[in-house]
Amino acid sequence: MADRIAQGRALEFRDPRKGRELVGLLARLCGQIGRAPISVMHVCGSHEQAIARFGLRASFPPELDVIMGPGCPVCVTDLPEVDEAIALAMAGVRIATYGDMLRVPGSGRSLADAKADGAKVEVVYSIAQAVELARQTSEDIVFFASGFETTAVATAAVLLAGTPANFSILSAHKYIPPVMEIVAEMPDTRVEGFLAAGHAAAITGWGVFERFVERHGIPVVVAGFEPLDILAGLACLLELIRDRRAAVINAYPRCVTREGNRRAQEALWRVFRPIGGQWRGIAHVPNGNLRLRDEWAHVDARRRFKIDLAGLWSFAPPRLAAECICGDIMAGIASPSDCPLFGAKCVPDQPVGACMVSSEGTCRIWHEYGGRPDLRR
Amino acid sequence: MCLGVPGKIVEISGPVATVDFWGVLREVRLDIVDEEVQPGDYVLNHVGYAIRKIPAAEVEATMALYESLLREAEREDLMAADIRGEITGGGKNKNG
Amino acid sequence: MADRSDAKIALKHGAGGRAMRALIKEVFVDRLDGSGGPGIGLAAMDDGAALPLGDRWLVVTTDSHVISPIFFPGGDIGRLAISGTVNDLAMMGATEVLALTCAVIVEEGFERAQLERVRDSIDETCRAACARIVTGDTKVMGHGEIDGLVLNTTGVAIASRVVPDSGLKPGDVVILSGTAGDHGMAVMARRHDLALRGDLRSDVAPLNGMIRCALDAAGDAVVAMKDPTRGGVASALCEMAQKGRVGIVLDGPSVPIKEEVRAAAELLGIDPLIVANEGKALIGVRPDAAERVLAALRAHPLGRDAAIVATCTNERPGQVILETGFGRRLLQEPEGEPLPRIC
After folding, report:
1. Do B62 and B85 share a domain, yes or no?
2. For A321, which DSSP code?
3. Are the CB atoms for B61 and A254 separated by under 8 Å?
4. What is the pLDDT of residues A46-63, one digit of tens each?
5. What is the domain range of residue A160?
6. φ, ψ for residue C294 (rounded to 5)?
7. Interface contact flag, A261 B32, Cβ < 8 Å
8. What is the ipTM of this complex?
9. Which among A348, B54, C111, C237 is least surrounded, fewest beta carbons within 10 Å?
10. Does C132 or A101 have the greater pLDDT score?
11. The whole model's pTM is what?
12. Chain A within 8 Å of B66 (Cβ-Cβ)?
């Protein structure tokens, strides 16, 4: 039946035999490049999750260093943004948010702490659920929106479809392409190629990377999330590095085109505008934050409510936060195993830094899979 | 972000499609999908919204990409082997 | 390992993983006088206790059941309660149940007809397990003081040989008696707010008959058993690795998983290896007996999909490595209840 065929197709992207062949190809390409380390970076928490889940690091050739970049939207949400949500919650406003955002530490506490103190904070699995909540009650519901552009389009679509009057958005959405610029321009960067996130590119199109590649001379390969997608994407990237070709290659043609999804882009930019902002640990990212346009002021929690952050200053930041190197980890300069707190004083149950809180966070992912993803002692 | 499992549209009612993900049904909104879709089409789902219609042909294209990657590599290896053969056969002999 | 000790009990303490075991050990095992006597007692934290009775063993186990929803595809709390206890006995090698008890705590306002439905299910499951309830207890609590219905069952059996969960040695293989993740995914898919529709059914069933076949086929060559309930195959294997002080290598592609379960798990971002099973067993056997045990399981209706899924080594004792087909990684037990990712 047609379903079987489709399943068969999808499962082909998990064919271990092809996987082994691609792993062999990676080793050969590294040999041809003839030096170590060869450093490439991905900027998507879902890529790291797939890599960790399928144990790919144990198969990568030792010369290949796949760096985890700032691909976790929750992790890069800066303290003041988290504080805004907490301040609202403490002022008695009902907040709905994705589970990941619940325990991200602000400058002193998290939404979970606020909830434990009686604030009305609920976890939802989709923004539609938050809207449903707003329809069922007369009190204000603020959706604390996190996620990159792929998730932001859903927020945009929801607003365009119309929401009840008591519903508003506190946007902490982020936009990825600008941060690649930042990483490429960092003085101690050793990134020779980028693996770009396939689903974000499904929205934006791979065309957005052309100017980046021209300007920085660093190749970009757009890759999907199945194990074969990732291996093939890395192989394409290594070929470009070997041939010193700065180009954009689309290794995810079944989902990504050059123009991307125009309809989704229109929805996105009708609702949001990019502004510069601080990304936790990474410094200022021009156009990295997505905020609601003026036409949407009526659903913008920042304009509907007066958010008083002063009340939060009395909470001293956790002592351990000084030792946290999440910023370096997100910039790709360090890995979790470099952090003295990792797995010891910083664990998913009691996270110190944002990277351990979010399911997309590097530390959280590594910890879930045992802390030593390449299984090399 | 999620793996974005492709699903097949079973039926459409206004902006909402019922999508079959390998035997599990879920509702997905069509507000921002890039092309007109109908039952039988495959879509990529992200947080409850279809973000792309996946043409069946593209699956083939991706598999072809992998194949060509691997064949290229084989060809290069063969070429390298040829060249190596020429060097050792024709010219300098180095020990070790 | 964390800085502050847990002053309050949290949900994770009931999730079947490390936190729960730590709580049990610190609060109960270390401070209750249950570890002194002969046999397998509290300190072993096995599926049940085994007390020497002449040249045989009296095996005892107890379980409380708090599942919600009470009725789910494939079963209900009654079937779960009986199967859970019968299976705990079976995992220790005690497949002929001497007797069961059943204590019931009901919330004020609970529908009597529903209670009778649960009773019918209990009755049916007892028959399937050749077990009978000989005594019980009934309590009613005020509305809101308890969530619907809580069942506690205790099981007693006599066995000539006890199979601990610590018996694995390097070279042994581990068989999984059927598909992984059925129960946990069925219950999770049922949750209204996840808006998932599909034909996912719990596998809840009493396994003593099937285990009897396996034990008859191989006797002493069955060296360790555990049912992968809360925390799934991952938790159970981690415990077996730790208690047996062996390394276990789990071959991902060999683990049988139903397509619908795999699909639902993908959609929710959950690993089928960490969700509960209520009708499956992990059976550790000496390598030369593996085929015999496999054949015996597959001949039984509840073991049709049985497969060899893991081997034991002396590398990385206490840890479980998962071969994914594309690489390998450590397989850890989940920290708490599996929660869907934003998807």
Report:
1. yes
2. G
3. yes
4. 899 899 989 999 999 999
5. 79-175+261-312
6. -60, -45
7. yes
8. 0.80
9. C111
10. C132
11. 0.83
12. yes
